[in-house]
Amino acid sequence: MPEPLDQCLEHIEAWRSLPARKRRVFSVTGPSAVGKTDFLNQVRQRISESIWIDCRGMTADAVALRMREACRTRPTPGDAVILLANVQYAGELLTSAQPARIAEVLAPGFRRFGGREVWVMAEHDPALIPVAVDHEYEITLADRSPIRPGSDQSQVDARVKALAAAELRRVPLAVWQLLCAADGTPASSEELLDLAHRTPDVLSVTEDESGTAEVEFVSDALVHAWRRVWPCEAATQARVVEALSTAVSNPPGNNWTHSDPVALYASRALPMHAALAGSLPALLDNGQLLAHCAPTGLYEALTVAYPDGVPYASTAALLHYMEVQGIAPSKQGEWVAWLHHAALCAGRTELADQLLSATPGLPWRTIWTRWRPPGFFGLRSQDAGRVDEFGITSVDPSARLITARDTTCGKNAAPRYQYLRQEWDPATGVRSSAPVTVRRALVEGDWDWVDARSRTETTSVVFARHSDNGWEQDPPVGSLPPRCPASVTQAVRIHDTWSLAGKEGIFAVTTNAVEDHPRQPPYPGKPLVAAHCHAAPWPLPDRAAAALRGDALREWLEETFGASSCHRLDANQLPPGISDAGTRRFLTETGLPEIRDFLHLAITPPGDRPLHEVPWPGRGRDTPRHLRARSEAPSNGPFYELGSWMYSKLLLDGTTGRILRDTTGGMAEPLAAGSLVQFFAMVRLFDEFRRAHRPGAPDHKDAQASLAAWCRHIDPEAVQGEVWTHILEGYDFEDSTWDLATYGDDYV
Description:
Elements: H1 5-16, E1 26-29, H2 36-46, E2 51-54, H3 60-73, E3 80-85, H4 98-109, E4 112-113, E5 116-123, E6 138-140, H5 155-164, E7 170-172, H6 173-182, H7 189-198, E8 203-207, E9 213-217, H8 220-229, H9 234-249, H10 261-277, H11 280-284, H12 287-290, H13 295-305, H14 315-324, H15 332-345, H16 349-358, E10 364-371, E11 389-392, E12 401-406, E13 419-424, E14 436-438, E15 462-467, E16 470-474, E17 488-494, E18 497-502, E19 505-511, H17 542-548, H18 553-561, E20 566-567, H19 581-590, E21 592-593, E22 595-598, E23 601-603, E24 613-614, E25 639-645, E26 648-653, E27 659-661, E28 671-673, H20 676-691, H21 697-714, H22 716-719, H23 722-728, H24 743-746
Parallel strand pairs: 1-5, 1-6, 2-3, 3-5
Antiparallel strand pairs: 4-5, 7-9, 8-9, 10-19, 11-12, 12-13, 13-14, 15-16, 15-17, 17-18, 18-19, 20-21, 22-23, 23-25, 24-25, 25-26, 26-27, 27-28
Helix pairs in contact: 5-6, 9-10, 10-13, 14-15, 15-16, 20-21
Protein name: SUKH-4 family immunity protein
Pfam families: SUKH-4
């Protein structure tokens, strides 16, 4: 210790006087076993009513809940000082992201709660938490008696080394045997138990509730010291994965309430062993194994296997987006039901079938889905889109589900009211008829339909609405729908099937009548602290990449702008001033797309007329002042008018092929794109981005970041300009770019 506690108190009090904007976490650091926890405990004695939380074995979310509850129930008024001990040993697994999540996210961000100012002091071991601390408010304890595990290569050390590879702190002898066998040092349970009893300074033996002997290192500091000296090689981890996979695939009774100790260990630790072996993707794509893995272990494994982000459209991405939606089941069966649902929504039918076959008797299961999964770019024909109004066409046996979405758009001062009405077969999810656009909401129109408000006492159909307190039924009888995230808003039960609707579409589930479904609040909507991972950059869609190479460019553009929307020009319609070969080829082979009413863009192809040459505004002697460009002409032209974009005329430079704004209105940025192909490719991608309904902020941000990256790849010079920067960062258009009814919810 560099100085007595009495001399440190002045430093601590100076920290406590900091205002919130300057407040940092006060760190007590130093190597393991130098007395950090004891020092923090002495501080606890000096600061009355301080809040003590030992983070050992706890997740960051659990620590956050303890911090919130302590601040909420603290009997004395005033500010709170929270002391976080053993931060470096947080997490159920020994290889864990929880220490970093607490140190990097939770502790620095917890400055105020429930009207109280909060100061956080935390214990850090720099060898286990590579977090940059604020050295101005830090106490570093000296390394007086470092832990030095045995370094010889005797058989005893090898078996202790094998135990250090365990991911749980305490394991039964059967798991230790498995680890020894994988490391090439097989041993009987009697031999291992005798070894543990002969090394009480290293290992501790206890018994669980059933009397089964379990073994662990005497301290977390010691096991991490052994891990540093004797790291487990990837080849050994691979053998552990193989043995655990066999155990978890064949548990007694083929269910996840494992009575076999090895299978129980595997359900919690197998994903991390696979991540350390480099084989996590294969495990995740095996539904038979995935179904038996607990979510906590899976999320921890993602941080090791994907430090640069989960790959696009992978099983890892499915797990990541389940976490960011706040789906946090309390039971394994409920978790597998959501895994199965996510796989079906993503079109992963083989994975979904494997999950079902591995876990009979789910509390509920999805039978069909029109629900859009997060983490995908672009439009999907199978998605129903957001549902605002939900009901049935009638109460007879041939009743169909009816949904409506408010698609009102246009300027706020003059909205164009419209609603998309759709009907669906409740047994299969097949669309019963073509979608219809109407001018009034269902509740306002004269429609033959039944909803929760119009049902009668004799109606056998049950309606339910999702609130902050969970599901509320009308009538309040029968089983409840599954516990859902807040994006699911309404439900209707016809016979034994619940059809659920919300921000991402509709889907139908059957529930297990044997299961008890008590009323529960919805999932929180997002992780309490932060997601374990992030998404890796999404790849440019294959169709877009092919179109940029010149393969089916016209077809790709017309897919979004409309059939026959690209108007080709004959060679004799091209003015001689258009000398750029790429531009001439685009105009004659692909054609100029006709676009209106979004992105402040209006393109009107010339029809049978040649393109019209215009001067750069300001060059003509008679040009009115208000039409003069705010910048000099970027070239000598000639310039041809294509339409308008962002309050200025959109011009084609015939010599260079560049697309320019004449800057008579809006931002003073002339360059729109380096070519027609680049401009319409970026517009086409933006159009697909804005039309793909994204109810979740994380999903939207990932899609927006990917769109910006693709545009930087397509035209790095133009995208650096002010206009594209504004657009890609979320420009608030006042045309039909966004649905007025959804902009505030979808794009924040």
